[in-house]
């Protein structure tokens, strides 16, 4: 491997933090773990080596050093724990779904239909992608299943129609299409209570801690003044920031019509794949609701990841894909190692008490500030501390109780408003990093969005989304008296 400044920089960051004495409230072990985590994030941003390798090296060092648990056996179990996380396998399964779309021809057919209907302009394609997510969002509580398992396999076929492949030609239109899809799912995840599983978990935490209850309609009504404009603006913002080279292509519409005609009627494999997709959607929607009985499954509940395994099994049995296809899907396994490592490392920050230390240290000075300033600072902390997390659920569980407890200690601060601003953040904050939410590793590993660009776009959209919370949603909630 060639040694460059990108290789050395993460080591320099690790050493600089490592040599600084641990701040008050932290022991050396906790501080050294944070130094390692910071070095891993720097390695991902700078692309010091393949992302899967960066994550695996960081995880190995943390395990060998016993940062989370000094017992070698327990440390190993902690290292391997992330490999059994359902979200990780849901992401891998989404990649396998994309193989099925591609090999059956269904993905190309659906992509050609979208191009024929709205492909006259690149902006039109952006809106087609955005509205596809919007239609699915209210009834799909897993954004990984929705965006990763359903939207991604279809939209990943669109750029190729325009001669835009992962790598050098990604900027023609692929970067724009893929980022629009990813940035949209962050908005829909916050627009509907049922569009992201941690939303309900966060509300449960809020009810226990501050006795604030929020219904489905109240949730939507409170966020709509920001969510609806963002849905309309995301394709335009992405167009400005991603700057696709292909602006319009009326001839592509004619060409796509000809290609659809040449494909003829759907093949047997296409019909089977379409049926499996419908089955997956049905199980994701109904299986996630314990109130809906699924006696044929022997249970009232089926985990979204179990749905993926069921559908992949059926794809293998029906010949849609072969096992060799799964083994050969390099992107899936790179994301598998990368996301598993980051998920475990970020959870370690919480397990060793580092997140609690950060939260409490940030909270202490807020006891004497005005309600508005306190509100802004608490929401700011809740939103941007997500750079330390690769799980929205664990973020809500670790940070939301602290933020709400601090908020109750600030005289005059509206706790219901603070609660809503925090829970609305959960979907939006998923845009900020390649590990911030379930679908992120898929789009990060697609090859259409440059690794550095992903961080840059995430920061830009994160700032826009966060500003919307403070400038639009906060005054709106205050006007409503919530």
Please characterize this protein's 3D structure.
There is one protein chain. Helix 5 runs antiparallel to helix 17 and helix 21 (415-428) packs antiparallel against helix 23 (451-480). The mean pLDDT is 85. The longest helix is centred in the last third of the chain and has 30 residues, at 451-480. Among the domains are: 1-82; 86-330, no CATH class. By secondary structure, it is mainly alpha-helical. The protein is globular and about 70 Å long. It has 23 helices and no strands.
Uncertain runs are none
* Annotation, overall tally of beta strands: 0
Order of helices and strands: HHHHHHHHHHHHHHHHHHHHHHH
Largest sheet: none
- Fraction in beta strands: under 5%
Q: Roughly how many Å apart are the termini? A: 57 Å
Which overall shape is indicated by the principal axes computed on the Cα atoms?
globular
Helix fraction, binned, reads over 70%
The number of helices is: 23
- Derived structural class: mainly alpha
Could you tell me the radius of gyration in angstroms?
A: 23 Å
Instruction: Quote the average pLDDT.
Output: 85
Short structural description:
Helix content is 72%, strand content 0%.
């Amino acid at each position: 491997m060639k040694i460059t400044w990108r290789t050395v920089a993460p080591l320099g960051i690790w050493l600089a933090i490592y040599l600084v004495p641990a701040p008050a409230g932290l022991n050396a072990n906790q501080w050294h773990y944070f130094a390692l985590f910071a070095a891993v994030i720097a390695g991902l941003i700078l692309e010091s080596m393949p992302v899967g390798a960066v994550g695996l090296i960081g995880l190995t060092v943390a395990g060998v050093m016993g940062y989370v648990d000094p017992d070698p056996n327990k440390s190993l179990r902690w290292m391997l724990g992330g490999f059994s996380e359902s979200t990780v396998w849901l992401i891998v399964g989404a990649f396998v779904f994309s193989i099925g779309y591609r090999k059956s021809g269904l993905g190309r057919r659906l992509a050609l239909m979208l191009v024929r209907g709205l492909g006259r302009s690149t902006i039109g394609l952006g809106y087609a992608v955005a509205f596809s997510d919007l239609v699915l969002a209210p009834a799909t509580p897993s954004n990984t299943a929705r965006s990763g398992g359903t939207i991604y396999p279809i939209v990943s076929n669109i750029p190729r129609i325009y001669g835009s492949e992962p790598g050098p030609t990604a900027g023609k239109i692929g970067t724009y299409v893929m980022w629009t899809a990813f940035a949209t799912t962050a908005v829909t995840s916050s627009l509907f209570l049922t569009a992201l599983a941690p939303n309900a978990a966060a509300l449960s935490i809020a009810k226990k801690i501050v006795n604030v209850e929020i219904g489905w309609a109240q949730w939507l009504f409170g966020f709509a003044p920001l969510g609806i404009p963002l849905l309309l603006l995301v394709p335009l913002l992405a167009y400005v920031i991603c700057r696709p080279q292909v602006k319009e292509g009326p001839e592509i519409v004619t060409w796509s019509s000809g290609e659809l005609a040449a494909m003829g009627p759907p093949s047997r494999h296409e019909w089977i794949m379409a049926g499996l997709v419908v089955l997956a959607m049905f199980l994701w929607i109904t299986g996630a609701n314990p109130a809906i009985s699924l006696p044929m499954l022997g249970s009232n509940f089926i985990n979204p990841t179990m749905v993926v395994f069921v559908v992949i099994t059926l794809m293998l049995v029906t010949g849609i894909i072969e096992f060799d296809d799964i083994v050969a899907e390099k992107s899936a396994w790179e994301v598998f190692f990368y996301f598993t490592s980051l998920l475990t490392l970020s959870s370690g920050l919480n397990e060793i008490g580092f997140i609690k230390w950060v939260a409490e240290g940030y909270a202490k000075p807020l006891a004497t500030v005005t309600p508005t300033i306190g509100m802004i600072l608490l929401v700011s902390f809740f939103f941007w501390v997500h750079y330390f997390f690769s799980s929205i659920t664990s973020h809500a569980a670790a940070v939301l109780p602290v933020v709400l407890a601090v908020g109750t200690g600030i005289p005059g601060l509206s706790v219901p408003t603070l609660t809503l601003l925090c829970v609305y953040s959960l979907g939006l904050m998923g845009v900020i990093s390649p590990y911030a939410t379930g679908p992120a590793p898929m789009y990060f590993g697609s090859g259409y969005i440059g690794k550095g660009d992903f961080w840059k776009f995430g920061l830009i959209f994160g700032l826009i989304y966060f500003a919307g919370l403070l400038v639009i949603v906060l005054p709106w909630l205050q006007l409503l008296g919530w």
